User: What shape does this take?
Amino acid sequence: MHKVNISTLADIVATKSLYMNQPSHSLVEILRNRALSQPHHMTYRFLRDGEFEEDNLTNGELDKHVCAIGAKLQSLSMEGDRALILLPPGLDFIMGFFGCLYAKVLAVPVYPPHPVRIERSIQIIQSIINDAQPTVALLSSSLLDAIISNDIAEKIFEGVRLLVLDDIEIEYWHTKWKEPDIRGNNIAFLQYTSGSTTEPKGVMVSHSNLLHNMELIGRCFGVSDDSHGVIWLPPYHDMGLIGGILQPLFSGISVTLMPHMQFLQQPFRWLDAISRYKGTISGGPNFAFDLCVKKVKPEQRDQLDLSSWEVAFNGAEPVYHHTLDQFAEYFAPCGFNKKSFLPCYGLAESTLMVTGGPRGRSPLEKNLSDSDLKKDKAVFTDSTSDPYRTIVSCGQNLSNQEIRIVNPETLTLCQENEIGEIWVSGPSVTHGYWDKPDKTSLTFGGYVPNTNEGPFLRSGDLGFFHKKELYITGRIKDLIISGGKNHYPHDIERSVENALQSIQPTGCAVFSVTNSESEDIVVVVEIRHRHELEHEKISSAIREAISMNHGLKVHDIRFTKPGGIPRTTSGKLRRFLCKEKYITGNLEEMIVI
Assistant: This one.
């Protein structure tokens, strides 16, 4: 594409045909084109309270603010520098993110600490600062005040210029922006992984990665001019940022957003927003649907109309068939159709989505022999007398990608119905980890010896293909191996949760601790009401459930209050961190009488 230096929307009119008739190579081009062709189109609606307090942003308004932020960043930093985005969910976050892109500065979205409780999360931010070496941070005035009044925080941010968005004079700076030369292979931002199994790493996501993956999502979801998204997912991880914020702009549709904490506090708000704004595309991890079944009361359900909901995507953690069944049955009276469910699979290292769809069908479910599953074999069974596990398909391979199932030990290709590690290759696979060449080579440099195919992204996830459908069985690093058999923690956690009503929904973490002779099973549970429970009674119920369903002996059980198990901002269990806290004695334990 020809280099065009444009500073205002008025200047772009003369080049309209040049922009509109050629494919975009970056998100900057896409937003500039949207601002020209659809300046009054409202892409973003943000519900500050999760209900009725609205902030809206049109393409034209977004572009003007982003030009100003981009120009200010150009005056403070160099192309390729990193900028922390420490802004809460909302329109400021969106403007700050695009402002980084407009300045050709690498955006680094990070969950901001609460100004009153800044020391609680400052260690995570410090590790990201040490890794990314940012030159600037975008933040709110309240967080700025908290940092400069806290000696520890002020020292951590030493050398990082702190920029409050409200202090930028939009009318002055938006005319100062100079369009940078952005190519498809330029890194757009660093997506720090959730750390559900390991310490966070900065995934380098390019503009080409984003455009390819958003095209896959749009095709898989059947996005059209009539589509409308409703998203509660936090913008600091791939599903909330790419699926919830960038995809609507890419496809030219509107999206209604809300803070994730507002959803977690009252799940009804999510469904009510879908009902009121006639949302067609929405979703989240499996726990979100489970939470709605448990928390939305019948009288609240009677107020809903979910008949507009065409795509209810479910990903980012194991998809449970009983959650889908329960949700579909419970919300059928208000118009939800089970065929709207679209289980999918993806990971940050492949931008976001890897498999999904097709839309408009009921989820595919298979019963697998439990004994064979523990031997890494997918053997289907129709018998209900033998132990089995029901598993849900996460959809089909999408275009321009190669997916292989590989034995993680021998690195040989697995046959159909044989469980192995999922390897991915294609334009959505990102450029590796920031400043970590060894880990990049290990994770992104997979080659199949007997075919010499590669390089592939080694996902660390286990699964198999059956009739072109991908089924996920677990994660390699989470596996518990006992007596030569594989056990998946999420299966054990479900058994515990189903055995005891007193456990917080999705409030159980299971992991193993290796000793000199074997792997010891440890269970950490979040308890709802301390005064109603007896230690021996609940412990016996947990041990019995795990013994009966999995044939395992529990080494230790620990109790904690709701929220005591570490999670990512999107709600996924951080078993690795939970295990680390257990080993170091740093769990916030609760005494059960």
Observations:
- The first helix runs from residue 9 to 12.
- The first strand starts at residue 42 and ends at 47.
- The radius of gyration is 24 Å.
- DSSP finds 21 helices and 27 strands in the chain.
